[in-house]
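Example: V-type ATP synthase alpha chain.
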Amino acid sequence: MLTKGTVKGIISNLVIVEVDGAVAQNEIAYIDLDGTRLMSEVIKVVGNNAYVQVFESTRGLTVGTKVEFQGHMLEVVLGPGLLQRNLDGLENDLDKMEGIFLKRGDYTFPLDEEKLWHFKPIAQPGDKVTAGSWLGEVDENFQPHKIMVPFTMKGEYTVKSITEEGDYNIYKTVAVVEDSNGQETSLNMIQRWPVKMPLTAYKEKPRPSKLLETGVRSIDTLNPIVEGGTGFIPGAFGTGKTVLQHAISKQAEADIVIIAACGERANEVVEIFTEFPELIDPYTGRKLMERTIIVANTSNMPVAAREASVYTAMTIGEYYRSMGLKVLLMADSTSRWAQALREMSNRLEELPGPDAFPMDLSAIISNFYGRAGHVILHNGKEGSITFIGTVSPAGGNLKEPVTENTKKVARCFYALEQDRADKKRYPAINPIDSYSKYIEYPEFEEYISEHISSDWTEKVNEAKTRLLRGKEIAEQINILGDDGVPTEYHVTFWKSELIDFIVLQQDAFDDIDSVTPIERQKYILDMVTDICRTDFEFDNFNKVADFFKELINIGRQMNYSEFRSDKFNQYRKQLDELISRKKVSD
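Written out as structure tokens, the predicted fold is:
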């Protein structure tokens, strides 16, 4: 028997409901507004009053309206056909909705109910299976989509029968399993899972160590992220967060890309919808959208939907991770999600924390980031979710609560700097403030030594030190003037500029320079490090600037040339000749 209730009070999207029975935290309820069913979620229970956040506009809602509780939490439907979908925060398929504007109370099913999928069995009758075990496989946009035992099933089961290979829709029974009591359960291709609960159908979750190549030099070389790692990109308006996200989404070594646009401005979300279908996947040559899912929810949607969207995206990511796939999840922007949490906290009249954010903001962010990671499944296969969120701090203030609390949990910090963006030094990642904690892990050090070079970390740390020293000297030159510091200071400064222009700066609109494979990144780092370790002799600071500007110009031309092509080798030869003329002879 479902619990019923009556609306007692309305504070914007927060509705107080007097209930006639038991309700649970995070339970879903529908408010019946003149025949239109408004979905809501219980966020607090006090006595016989349930406080629910409504995922729709509450305009026209009145005291006395009837409410029906559903007995389950906010769930997502999981199954083949999610790829290439444009979903909202509640997993409604936006392409199935009619009209320009979303209609209140209009909910759609996210999967294609009639499409036939070519099913190939993996399990055999008699096999012992548990939640998350692979029963069969269908091809979803060239990805091996595993049909699994529902994650909600507890204990061990025996496969009684499995459907033979063939074409079936998502409702076709593909397997029958039997529990220890002899009770049989028929399973089809779809299942449901509550978004607020992590999916833990795996054997272990070791510390990630394998480099995730993004093709962005300032990330891969200086502050690498790993498969199953976490990172975040804070930056003020106009510093290039969206372009950097697009670059990582397009170029990173991932099987599945999920974009969660949680509370971004409508024009930025429209960019994703219009640009992503046109992008070509550099790994397959087909459309990138084939392996992408977009979960969109703009700033003008109710705040409760922003919170739902990040959890929906993460749960879909965990589902694909359970298939042994590498998932890249990008959330833009987690600041809007935190602002939604702040609004609901204020409406609940809870004790405010810093900047009026909830007191438990740190725990909420930590729990969410903790759901990413690299896992080993029960069958020995591996999967991962790499999560990169962007933060939009008001006025570019990196000391505000969302940035500070995210810094505590994310292992990589890519600070986008207004000053670098103003100087057109893109990507505008500040090389000194940014960091990657993975570079300190012995497992990562071992991986890098084996796959790239044993002295890679040493050269990266040297480059960072030179950049810091260059910044300090730049400040001294700014105060004392060019002729107020020794010539060797100018040499140190220009060596840091060499690293900046050749290693860090990248042209996102050039076919060659926009993506740098790790082999080429190693070549560039080795070349620049050798130049920085070379001693040069100059008469005055003007000669220093002229010489290094010429070096930088040739180095940048190399970045625009096909790796190891005749043109590339010709520029390298010019570079070597220029260096040999100026270096101090042994």
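The longest strand covers residues 36-46.
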